[in-house]
Design a protein that fits this description.
The protein is of the alpha/beta class. It has two domains: about 170 residues, Rossmann fold (3-Layer(aba) Sandwich), CATH 3.40.50.970; about 130 residues, Rossmann fold. It contains twelve helices and 14 strands. It has a seven-stranded mixed beta sheet with strand order 3-2-4-5-7-6-12, with helices on both faces. A five-stranded mixed beta sheet has the order 9-11-10-13-14, sandwiched between helices. Strand 6, helix 7 and strand 7 form a beta-alpha-beta unit. The longest helix is centred in the N-terminal third of the chain and has 15 residues. It is globular and about 60 Å long.
């Protein structure tokens, strides 16, 4: 993991880079924006392929419906906006126009979670995993870093059907490498454990790795899984690590209710029940503040993960 913060990068940058690569590969790729072109890094595509870029202004619902129509006409649209708008304001269009019709639409949910920082609760989407993972036909991905975000963008164009890619605004640690494996629907085991496994998504993967290193100093063998694809879940890997360690901690920058941790618990409750501790936002809205100070306040840092590891180990014994 890259610990030099000067080399950290926003996951949305990987999305923009991926769009340009896709634009060069496939003339059917089109990009849609709702007055957030630079913030979502869709501007990189716009600058290179202006004839395939469509600016809708502050009309996200119209944009989502148009994307469905473009898909039915043979294009592969990438809808670029903030997560709060893509899943909240546009839920009806996402559900009916895109998912019900199984349209080949790809959606960037940028600025998700608490790392939007000063923008505050109205722009801190802490419910989007809950809203998207229940929609039939929709694939849900949360990359852990900029490299994986680019891979997720490229891979989303290779499968047919709607895809939601959850990204953050703030620069985050680079956890993966260019040659790290990435397959939609296949989790990556970053560390093997003996005592407990931490399953994380997004920027929490880096925090999980830090927690595992601290736990190692206390003689606790912690496995770490990067669960970048939240739907469809890699049930095989989740069950495997549960059997290997007998205890699970999940961590995400999302509401604890109905998030990634809930999805993991649903699988283990019917296949291999083990003690689980879930880290996330606990039934409250976000607030304005510096991004990483908010992670500390909401209990989403490596320290909180380490404490959860110790709690779940007590339950295990």
């Amino acid at each position: 993991m890259e610990k030099d913060k000067s080399k950290w990068k926003e996951t949305r940058a990987g999305y923009g880079e991926g769009l340009v690569i896709l634009g060069e590969r496939n003339p059917k790729i089109v990009v849609l924006s709702a007055d957030l072109t630079k913030s979502t890094h869709a501007n990189l595509f716009k600058e290179k392929f202006p004839d395939r870029f469509f600016q809708f202004g502050i009309a996200e619902q119209n944009m989502m419906g148009a994307a469905a129509g473009m898909s039915l006409a043979g294009c592969i649209p990438f809808v670029s906006t903030y997560a709060v708008f893509a899943t909240g304001r546009c839920f009806d269009q996402l559900r009916v126009s895109v998912c019900y019709s199984n349209c080949n639409v790809k959606i960037e949910g940028a600025h998700s979670g608490l790392l939007v920082g000063p923008d505050g609760a109205t722009h801190q989407s802490l419910e989007d995993i809950a809203l998207t993972r229940v929609l039939p036909n929709l694939t849900v991905i949360e990359p852990c870093d900029v490299i994986e975000a680019r891979k997720a963008t490229l891979s989303s164009a290779e499968i047919y059907g709607p895809v939601y890619i959850r990204l953050v605004r703030e620069k985050t640690a680079i956890v993966t490498a260019e040659d790290s494996p990435f397959t939609i629907g296949k989790a990556n085991v970053l560390r093997n454990g003996k005592d407990v496994t931490v399953i994380a998504c997004g920027p929490e993967v880096a925090e999980a790795l830090l927690a595992a290193e601290e736990a190692e100093k206390e003689g606790i063998k912690v496995g770490v899984v990067n669960l970048h694809t939240i739907k469809p879940l890699d049930e095989e890997t989740i069950v495997k690590v549960a059997k290997e360690t007998g205890a699970i901690v999940t961590t995400e920058i999302h509401q604890v209710a109905c998030g990634m941790g809930s999805a993991v618990a649903e699988i283990l409750s019917r296949t291999y029940p083990v003690p689980i501790e879930m880290i996330g936002v606990k039934d409250r809205f976000g607030e304005s503040g510096q991004p990483y100070e908010l992670l500390e306040k909401f209990g989403l840092t490596s320290t909180s993960i380490l404490n959860a590891i110790k709690r779940v180990l007590k339950r295990k014994t």
